[in-house]
Amino acid sequence: MGRLGLTEILVIVGIVILLFGGKKIPELMKGLGSGIKEFKNAAKDDQSAPAKKQEEETKE
User: What topology does the record note for this protein and the membrane (predicted)?
Assistant: First the structure.
């Protein structure tokens, strides 16, 4: 349970194509990719923010 085989993946892809059509899928993937990119950038900025704050405090 929890593992997807080739048949299940093909059925899911077929349903997605039927629902959204062939022209809409690249737009959806582009939006998904840009969303992931923004999320990674935000996470990276959050990790570097505490380090910058510590550097500013030690300079004072």
Answer: Single-pass membrane protein
